[in-house]
Amino acid sequence: MQGVVQPVILMGVKLVNMRILTCCLGLLVPAASEAAIVTFNVAGEITDVQDPNGYISSTGIAAGTLFSGFFSYDSDTAGLYSPNAWYTSYGSLAPSQYTIDSQYGITSIATFVTVKNDAPDDPFPDELVSYIFGVSFGFPTNLGSNLAYVSFSDQDGTALSSTAVPTSLLLSEFETATFTFQLAVPGADSVTILGQVTALTVTTERIPEPATLALFGLGLAGFGAMRRKKLVA
Question: What distance in Å separates the CA atoms of residue 116 and residue 112, rounded to the nearest whole number?
Answer without folding.
Answer: 13
